[in-house]
Task: structure prediction
Amino acid sequence: MALTIKDIAKKCGVGVSTVSRALNNHPDINKETREKILKAVEEDGFIPNNSARNLKRTDSKTVAIIVKDIDNPFFATMMRVMEEEIHQEHYTFFIQHVGDKQNEVDAALELVKEKRLRGLIFLGGYFQGQEERLGRIKVPFVVSTAELPDIPDKETCSFITIDNEQESFYMVEHLCKKGHKKIAILAAAKDDCNIGRMRLEGYKRALAEYKIPLHKTLIRHLDKNHAEYSMENGYQLMKELLKEGTTFTAVYAISDLMAIGALRALHEAGRKVPEECAVAGFDGLSYTAYYIPSVTTVVQPVEEMAKESVKSLFQMIESKKGVPGKILPARLAERQSTLGTGPNASGPVPVYNSEVKR
Amino acid sequence: MALTIKDIAKKCGVGVSTVSRALNNHPDINKETREKILKAVEEDGFIPNNSARNLKRTDSKTVAIIVKDIDNPFFATMMRVMEEEIHQEHYTFFIQHVGDKQNEVDAALELVKEKRLRGLIFLGGYFQGQEERLGRIKVPFVVSTAELPDIPDKETCSFITIDNEQESFYMVEHLCKKGHKKIAILAAAKDDCNIGRMRLEGYKRALAEYKIPLHKTLIRHLDKNHAEYSMENGYQLMKELLKEGTTFTAVYAISDLMAIGALRALHEAGRKVPEECAVAGFDGLSYTAYYIPSVTTVVQPVEEMAKESVKSLFQMIESKKGVPGKILPARLAERQSTLGTGPNASGPVPVYNSEVKR
Result:
């Protein structure tokens, strides 16, 4: 059984506020009383620190992060940054992983009931069509790296994301400007209605704007039963495309992990990157800067997204009012995998990569 | 406020056990009563599923994973596997991340008090000298990927790890057998007393066994203020070694991430791998199979370690008895980064890599 502040107060023959002062290192307390309380606490194995207040459970200062894809290195970095920010607010937090077959909103509803949370951050996930149940989440929440539909019955919710369609457009435009006309895309599953679809839309719009006809054979979709944006899946899609013998001079993968898989498949087929084929990714994983060749990618503002997510959440916890969603800009990092490629290229491919030398 | 089973029972004018039967879909209940209870539950927004039982908080079936380094892709895979295993036991779980400056045992003691857990898994961390406080953790726990010292006052604790010294020995032996005599090691900080030290000891023992003198300049330690086994740190150590101009024909990094950083630094210096230098890592991250060249490494049995950790934990929860620690074998995966290197090499370096074609 956990000790409550009341138990300690009773044991030491003092008031609850005195125990609270002792636990919080408040100067306004008799030294002997303080020592007596800390000794009592020590004997029962209770650790007096920031989370002491949590013992009085209705005052628990805890938030949770609900993460859909814990394997994703992109999310790992975000969780680390979020942790730092949440600790600065003197809150405790924990991470709840939601499996493939679980619904993230169900998980949230349960958590709020069980753990008496002050707020939630969804890291990834899919929210279209779940408006009614999202409205039943009693605490403020922020959706991070995805957009949130309008929720009629809920004010204290917000989101932080990038413009996936527009950033994808910029990447494909980058390839078009180099003169590439046969640009393959390694895309999400055909029925995807999430960021995968938006990145594909950006690809289509860029080709249209540069008057490049759309080749259906160059649009490679993930299998809907194995729809992870993984190295393995990028590798397999690339293998299939190579096997078919369709001509292409550039490959755009909608995730960095898929781009790395594609690079490996091209290497095994003896196709030199960037000399014989340009490759571009999306996300800005740190691996892409260390790969050989280093990979051109859309760098998502990971730190800023994590910080803004926490900031919006605490704004809502404190003000009990909604905060507008934010769309942050990403950055195109041109690296070796597209350098000097295409008919409009000039000069040799440099080996050095300023991205690594931070 | 969360509804308790009592509240629902009162509202419906039935006993607590009847509510429990309704929530658990038990056949032994009147259909109308069941519908009445589920309707009451629905009206108050309570989700009737596996975790319904958790409402009666003393019966909460929850375990926690305390993870020291959430950025580590090795741990991410383990968490995913652990999640699957824990759900099979019909337990809920959450992940608690412990920051660089936090102590993992303190975090555990707090969690157990606050959350009424049934058990804990430590993923990584450092436990020497913390025996007394570890003994105060009231629930069973398993230390995963590290060894646990003897804890006099605690029976229900266990560990799962590999033999870091021996596996490291095998990797360096692999390089020695190829005839390499100048083998640099990218090692942990000088004052490390954890797996970093054990991997270094394996290196030293292999050199001694193969009668290769130890060159101090070839032992490169991480800075103790930036001691993460990261790509960035591997890159920096390699840069420094290259700058000094010391001769070496092989580099052994004590982590795959450091090996990838080193490979990038060698590439930028124009040193061809494996032709002019062999490179080996440790851990078996999936990236190593996709890197160009693919990286020879010690593959830790990630899935098995995760499964065994959960198994040992539930054995202890059920039997209330201790379970002996387990040391599992790892596997040396020879890939392109060491193939055909050293004076004893024969034949050309193959491009294909069977590791990827799973």
